[in-house]
Amino acid sequence: MEACSDLQVDINGEETIFLNKKIICKFSGTLRKLLGKSTYTSNGNLKVIFNDFPGGAECFELVTRFCYNNGQFTVVPSNVVLFHCAAKFMEVTKVLEQTEKCMEEIRYWTWSEVLLGLKQCQELETSSDTDSLAAKLMDALVEKLCLAIEPSLSSAASACSPSPDSSLFRFSCDSKSTASFKNGSSRIPWWFDEVLVLNPGLFATFLKLMIARKFDNLTISRFLFYYQKVKFCSASCNEKREILETTIDTLYVLDRSCVPYKNLFGVLRLALGLNINKSVMNKLELMIGHQLDQATLDNLLVPSPLKSSHLYHVNLVLRFAKAFLNEAKRGSQVKKVARLVDQYIAEVAPDPFLKPSKFLSLLTLIPDSARESHEDIYRAIDMYLEAHAGLTNGEKLNLIRTLSYEKLSAESRAHISRNTKFQAIHTPNVQQQQQKQLILRVEEKVEVSGDNEKLKEHIQGIQWRVMELERACLKMQNQMEVIKKTSKSTIRGSNRSLPKLCS
């Protein structure tokens, strides 16, 4: 026995197999090339070490059995993937001929056999060989699923088959499951759990083929969320990111009505924690933004990124609203979003870390025509000024300018005239201050009854316009100061550059 075993082969450090050099080299081109580089052991045997043999010792033993049986070994669907990859590595031509012949009969494989082949492709190290096999197996899997869902197609395929008792549909498909698939009911279709064996890479390929075959978009959407939910339990961080990016890319091309809107916010919260690809994140934001009229306030209250000091992710909501407004929307939809944004503004206004520029962006986000009232905006600005007592007059003016006097109630108009936070905005123009005090004194003398109520409202309107003039005046003064400083620096710079005309 020892005389026949003159070759040692170390397979990936897992196992050392003793072989007859003459027998194995008769079939393996790889070993014939390597024996010249091999080393002798202490007992005089040759030794070859493989560190990257696909499938490990199990696959290597398949090839050695083939060689020891003088090429008499049956290749079947359950071992064709392992056989093919091992034979490719060992350059055993006769095995490759049999594996290719077996793959040509893939349309007659059962559903279970195709899934097993895909699972074996995943277990082997990634290579061009396994990728090409996986592509053929995946195409067969989707084809079988497609025919199972469409009985008319399956009968046509059977009629065209050369064998009347073709095994095309020898897999676990029952009529009840198919019916639930077509109805789109809450029951999980039979194939959802079986396809969970696919890794994130093959999962993406599977989805692309489903879309290419015009599968029902609602079913694809349901499968996406089911796969994500189940696989996330045991997936690594990188696998979670890959699954999520595939999910978003696929949802983006599906019919919008087939994607549950609330599920998108679940995906969003996961995506924010995984730092997914920016282009993929943009797709998710567009999907949410385009249907913003379906959102609730709770949906929008997304916590800010970890490095941010403010409480809520305001930039995200700004992008949602811009995506919504960039699409042609009905007036009722815009008004609904306007009410939602106003609620959001009121929610974030007390945040002491929210910058005035961000708050102003929220106030000016929605067209003024979409707001029938500015009551909520006034209260939000009031809360913001309360939480940000250190704002400059210019910052306060920018915020207050977003208010429309005509869209405030009489109660709010009266309140704003007494609101110290708003009255703190002043200009050094003494004449304007005197006009303001005069109007206030006239207002106090008017009795609020009968026809005088209209006069009272009229005076309040005049007071509001005076305040607007004050703001405009302050803005002009600030601009003039900037112009003066710029002019002085320009003159000084030009004087330095003038050449001396006299010596």
UniProtKB/TrEMBL annotation:
One Pfam family linked to the record: NPH3
Q: In which pathway does it act?
A: Protein modification; protein ubiquitination
Per the record's keyword annotation, is rRNA-binding included, yes or no?
Answer: no
Q: Looking at the record's lineage, which domain of life comes first?
A: Eukaryota
Q: Where, by residue number, does the polypeptide cross the bilayer?
A: none
Q: Where is the BTB domain?
A: 5-70
> Which positions are tagged coiled coil?
452-486
Show where the NPH3 domain sits. 189-437
Enumerate the UniProt keywords alphabetically.
Coiled coil, Ubl conjugation pathway
Q: Does the keyword Coiled coil apply?
A: yes
What family is this?
Answer: Belongs to the NPH3 family.
Which protein are we looking at? Phototropic-responsive NPH3 family protein
Which organism's genome codes for this protein?
Brassica carinata
